[in-house]
């Protein structure tokens, strides 16, 4: 029997996630009164037809939310297994989503949305601390969220609460807004000015060989890898769920792509976190020249 409490910040995608849980075979109930959660858990015992249950709980419970801590403690002490899935997003993304949908934050009252979000974070913090899975949806597409939920609840894979994104970019197009760490590799010779390499990218072997022939590229990569491997365990300890490492050159096509790829290959075998790579500006020069 699987009993999941799906919770998190308003606007982080709980309603969407609950529909996805339903699609993968869970019996789902949204906004169940806190007083009924324990009774509902009793229904989902090994002898029941309900073998997979997901209950949506959030700030809409009002003052009754404060009672949830005691309910969870009692479930644990009585031997009833449950898991908490917590969906989160950055304040900036949550504000943007509220503006797009023109909804009023339940705790904002007559104040601005960001004030409501601050109040909600304080009220929800005890659930975040108890969560088995924390999914940051700030930069997730709907299909990516679905894939993460399937990893956890269908494929039963070990879930990594920290997700690392390595992004290559071009400074002339601006630094990615969600960057946590930004590194400038314009100190390396530019393949753009080498005959035969301008049209190629850092995904091509010829460009990679050109960039990596300089000892400074290898030294930079060694130092960057060492720093990132030092930082990540500390970020995990502090509860960080998203780390965006941005590597930039002039156009985001040659040097940054090469070194972002190299860093990804050095880090992708680690088991303490999830990781992906994006090349934001790799095709922009080609589009501009059409």
Provide the descriptors you would attach to this structure in a database record.
9 strands; elongated; 290 residues; alpha/beta; Rossmann fold
Plain-language structure description:
- The chain folds into 2 domains: 152 residues, P-loop containing nucleotide triphosphate hydrolases (Rossmann fold), CATH 3.40.50.300; 126 residues, no CATH class.
- It has 10 helices and 9 strands.
- The strands form 2 sheets. It has a 5-stranded parallel beta sheet, sandwiched between helices. A 4-stranded parallel beta sheet has the order 7-8-6-9, with helices on one face.
- Strand 2, helix 2 and strand 3 form a beta-alpha-beta unit.
- Helix 1 packs across helix 6, helix 4 crosses helix 5 and helix 8 packs across helix 9.
- It is elongated and about 70 Å long.
- The N and C termini lie far apart (58 Å).
Cα gyration radius (Å): 23 Å
* Main beta sheet: 5 strands, parallel
**Strand share of the residues?**
15-25%
Distance between the termini: 58 Å
Helices, strands, pairings?
Layout: E1 2-8, H1 14-23, E2 27-30, H2 34-43, E3 52-56, H3 68-77, E4 83-88, H4 91-101, H5 113-130, E5 133-136, H6 142-153, E6 163-170, E7 181-184, H7 205-212, H8 215-237, E8 242-249, H9 255-267, E9 274-279, H10 284-288
Parallel strand pairs: 1-3, 1-4, 2-3, 4-5, 6-8, 6-9, 7-8
Helix pairs in contact: 1-6, 2-3, 4-5, 8-9
Please outline what is shown here.
By secondary structure, the protein is of the alpha/beta class. The protein is 41% helix and 18% strand. Strand 2 (27-30), helix 2 and strand 3 (52-56) form a beta-alpha-beta unit.
């Amino acid at each position: 029997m699987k009993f999941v409490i799906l919770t998190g910040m308003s606007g982080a995608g709980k309603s969407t996630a609950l529909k996805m849980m339903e699609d993968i075979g869970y019996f789902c109930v949204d906004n169940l009164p806190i007083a009924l959660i324990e009774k509902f858990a009793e229904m989902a015992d090994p002898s029941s037809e309900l073998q997979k249950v997901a209950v949506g709980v959030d700030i809409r419970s009002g003052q009754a939310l404060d009672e949830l801590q005691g309910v969870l403690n009692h479930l644990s002490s009585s031997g009833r297994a449950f898991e908490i899935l917590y969906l989160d997003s950055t304040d900036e993304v949550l504000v943007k989503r509220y503006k797009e949908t023109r909804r009023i934050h339940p705790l904002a009252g007559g104040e601005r949305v960001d004030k409501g979000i601050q109040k909600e974070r304080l009220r929800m913090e005890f659930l975040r601390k108890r969560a088995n899975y924390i999914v940051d949806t700030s930069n997730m597409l709907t299909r990516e969220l679905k894939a993460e939920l399937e990893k956890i609840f269908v494929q039963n894979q070990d879930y990594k609460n920290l997700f690392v994104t390595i992004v290559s970019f071009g400074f002339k197009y601006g630094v990615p807004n969600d960057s946590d760490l930004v590194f400038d590799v314009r100190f390396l010779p530019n393949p753009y000015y080498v005959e035969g390499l301008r049209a190629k990218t850092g995904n091509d072997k010829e460009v990679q060989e050109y960039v990596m022939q300089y000892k400074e590229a290898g030294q930079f990569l060694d130092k960057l890898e060492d720093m990132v491997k030092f930082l990540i365990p500390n970020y995990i300890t502090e509860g960080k769920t998203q780390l965006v490492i941005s590597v930039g050159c002039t156009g985001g096509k040659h040097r940054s792509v090469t070194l972002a790829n190299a860093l990804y290959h050095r880090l992708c075998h680690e088991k303490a976190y999830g990781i992906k790579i994006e090349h934001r500006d790799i095709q922009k020069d080609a589009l501009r020249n059409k």
